[in-house]
Write a structure and sequence with these properties.
The complex is a heterodimer of chains A (368) and B (318). Chain A has helices at 2-19, 21-30, 37-44, 50-62, 64-78, 96-103, 106-144, 154-162, 166-173, 175-180, 184-189, 234-261, 271-275, 282-294, 333-341, 343-351, and strands at 148-149, 152-153, 299-302, 305-310, 313-316, 325-328, 355-360, 363-367. Chain A is an alpha/beta fold and 368 residues long. A six-stranded mixed beta sheet of chain A has the order 3-4-5-7-8-6. Chain A has a two-stranded antiparallel ribbon with strand order 1-2. In chain A, helix 7 runs parallel beside helix 12 and helix 8 crosses helix 12. The radius of gyration of chain A is 40 Å and the shape is elongated. With 318 residues, chain B is an all-alpha fold. Chain B contains 13 helices and no strands. Residues 1-13 and 179-185 of chain B have low confidence and may be disordered. Classes of the chains: A alpha/beta (368), B mainly alpha (318). At the A-B interface, helix 1, helix 2, helix 3, helix 4 and helix 5 of A face helix 5, helix 7, helix 8, helix 9 and helix 10 of B.
């Protein structure tokens, strides 16, 4: 309502302005007293004391000639002597610092600051996107140029390290390999050298990468065990994949050495195998061999539960991919409630650092 | 004569106190000047005293010593010394003045003229005016330089002198040739006269037609009662056709401030107009109806007005 009223006043003022144009000019022509040049320029430059300025304002409101001159001079002063259609005239006596002060004046900054802020945001976004793109390229690097070692590639090794679900490992990662080779079982047994061929194939649930890296001391979160959860934390996967690729290179070298030694020396039980009373699978054997290189156990038994290391996580041997998984943070209220019900899990969480997947009452808990 | 700051203990002693403050200020001004052109205190004192009286004490007789000191310390020391030296006939000062400001004078002359010849004429006239063609009673040339106070910049003052000279020349030519349209001064005449001629006839018919003619009168009356700054803003915006940004530039405020002030003026005018109409015996319902009708009619007719103006301007252009 108020705006509508203002609009009416606005229209009437416009009308009044048009009607009053000629009388104003006539009034100015007849006027004998005008502001002098010094007063006009001082007013236009805002160099007058307030009281004096108010006096001249009253005159300007009624004198169209002086008003037009002041307007013209104000534009000249504000426009830094640039007259329309004319070359720019240099203003004498302006030092470098005065020019800098003009550039930093609020009048200029009110336009430049938002532009600079926008540029900064765009630049930061661009850099962030570039870094994200770079990490993608790094992760895909080994995939595009795979290093073939004993019919396995670094890419495949890395993928296995990521795939904490043994059941889905072959299906998810080895699919391209399947197209080239006979069967998943063949692929699973490929890493094992000729001496291992005599051994019976390990059970499917015990298949795991033989090059699980040392868990991070700070208990950093690792890749999840289920394939559908791998998309939850891409950055974490990328990091893990890089580690796996690095480790796989070490593994490849080690395998070459083992392959060269095996024909002449029969397989001897490893430390890990003897510790478990000879109940080692082929996958465990690989883990034990990894232990020789890395000095860290790949399988541990805590509170009567056996855990395999997969990536940076300890996974309960009883874990099945079909089980529902509940994420629990150490120290959280949920964790305290869980260990109150299952004191065994408290011991497990205390013994095993990093991420632990433990099965309790047909339910899996991922403890971080 | 100006009455000095009675009521302020620092200025109650009258001229002697002012003289002391001005003398101290003049010494500081000379010390500030990078090139004093041998201008001495004796020559400078009357100039500064005159500026203080004109710009400070005339409007604010109760100014304190601090205000007077601040005023003097804000004077353009270099420019003032240069002008005073020129007035005293210092040839070096004249050379410097011409060298430093001839470009400023030329550009100001061009902005007031449409062709190079007229601009050159004005430029030459300015230097003659500055030098002083007539002689004063004391035998010295009556120069315009005597009017520069040092309050604003010398470049700004020169531009103002050029603009005023252009107006004077235009008036003289208008009287001689008896023409309303002078291509040397189209900034102040051509477009506005065409615009005004077209507008006045149509506005007259609108005013006659409107039931709210009384409303327009009440508005005109209310407008005269506005504060000076507000009247100037309205004149600049509605009468001179400036944009809000330009209005802000003239008033020394931001465009947004000018816009807010204009909105406030609208609302004040509305109240004043209603008050005038109430005094004339109008009722609330009548006032509201009148505003509504005027608003609708003006909005409709302004579209016609714009169309007519465009046609008139096209005709004038041909």
């Amino acid at each position: 309502m108020k705006e509508y009223k203002d609009k009416e006043i606005d229209l009437m003022l416009r009308s009044l302005g048009r009607q009053g144009q000629d009388p104003s000019i006539q009034e100015a022509e007849d006027r004998t007293s005008h502001l002098d040049a010094d007063e006009l320029s001082s007013y236009a430059e805002g160099a007058l004391p307030l009281a004096t300025r108010n006096l001249y304002t009253a005159h300007l409101a009624d004198c169209v000639t002086c008003r037009k001159l002041v307007t013209q001079l104000s534009f000249s002063a504000g426009g830094a002597t640039t007259i329309a259609g004319q070359p720019k005239v240099s203003e004498p006596g302006k030092s470098f610092w005065q020019q800098v002060a003009v550039l930093l004046s609020p009048r200029v900054l009110r336009y430049t600051l938002p532009v600079l802020a926008l540029l900064a945001v765009v630049t930061i976004s661009f850099v962030a996107l570039r870094q994200s793109g770079d990490s993608d390229l790094v992760a895909l690097g080994p995939r595009t140029v795979p290093v073939i070692t004993n019919e396995r590639t670094i890419d495949e090794s890395a993928s296995e390290a990521l795939t904490s679900d043994p059941g889905t490992k072959v299906e998810a990662v080895e699919t391209p390999k399947e197209q080239r080779t006979a069967s998943p079982k063949t692929v699973a047994s490929k890493p094992v050298d000729s001496a291992k061929d005599a051994q019976s194939p390990p059970p499917a649930d015990s298949q795991q990468p033989a090059y699980a890296p040392e868990p991070v001391a700070t208990a950093a979160p690792t890749a999840p065990s289920k394939r559908d959860e791998r998309n939850e934390d891409l950055a974490q996967k990328e990091e893990l994949r890089r580690d796996s690729v690095r480790d796989s290179e070490t593994e490849t070298v080690r395998r070459r050495e083992v392959t060269q030694r095996r024909p002449s020396s029969p397989r001897s039980p490893s430390v890990g195998e003897s510790a478990r009373g000879g109940r080692v699978t082929e996958a465990d054997q690989s883990s034990v061999e990894t232990n020789k290189t890395q000095g860290a156990p790949a399988t541990r038994t805590v509170a009567g539960t056996r855990f395999h290391r997969q990536g940076n996580a300890w996974v309960d041997a009883a874990y099945q991919p079909s089980m529902p998984v509940v994420n629990v943070q150490r120290g959280s209220e949920q964790f305290r409630a869980l260990v109150a019900d299952e004191p065994r899990i408290r011991t497990i969480a205390a013994e095993l650092e990093g991420e632990v997947v433990v099965v309790s009452q047909k339910k899996a808990y991922r403890i971080r | 004569m100006v009455a000095y700051g009675f009521g302020d203990p620092l200025l109650t002693s009258g001229n002697a106190q002012i003289d002391r403050i001005v003398a101290e200020g003049a010494r500081r001004l000379l010390a500030r000047a990078a090139e004093s052109y041998a201008v001495n205190l004796e020559i400078l004192l009357p100039r500064i005293r005159s500026a203080v009286e004109k710009y400070l004490l005339k409007a604010n007789p109760g100014a304190s010593e601090k205000e007077v000191v601040g005023f003097i310390d804000e004077l353009q020391a270099d420019d003032l010394c240069l002008i005073v030296a020129c007035e005293q006939g210092n040839q070096n000062a004249w050379n410097d003045l011409v060298a430093r400001f001839s470009a400023t004078v030329r550009s100001a002359a061009r902005s007031s003229s449409s062709n190079e010849d007229a601009a050159e004429d004005i430029s030459q006239s300015i230097w003659a005016e500055l030098y002083g063609l007539r002689t004063r009673a004391d035998g010295k040339p009556a120069s315009k330089l005597a009017y520069y106070s040092g309050r604003g910049s010398l470049a700004g003052w020169l531009r103002a002198v050029v603009a005023q000279l252009a107006v004077d020349q235009h008036r003289k030519q208008s009287r001689m040739v008896q023409t309303e349209q002078d291509e040397d001064f189209d900034r102040f005449s051509t477009q506005e006269r065409v615009h005004a001629t077209a507008s006045v006839h149509l506005e007259q018919s609108i005013a006659n037609k409107f039931v709210g003619a009384e409303l327009q009168k009440a508005l005109a009356k209310s407008f005269e009662g506005l504060p000076d700054e507000d009247r100037l803003l309205v004149k600049l915006y509605y009468f001179d056709g400036l944009k809000l940004r330009e209005v802000g530039s003239v008033l020394g405020v931001h465009e947004a401030t000018a816009s807010r002030r204009l909105t406030k003026i609208h609302s004040e005018l509305r109240k004043k107009v209603e008050g005038v109409l109430f005094e004339q015996g109008w009722g609330r319902a009548e006032i509201d109806r009148a505003f509504t009708e005027v608003g609708i009619d003006l909005e409709t007719d302004i579209e016609t007005l714009v169309t007519t103006e465009a046609a008139v301007e096209d005709k004038a252009g041909k």
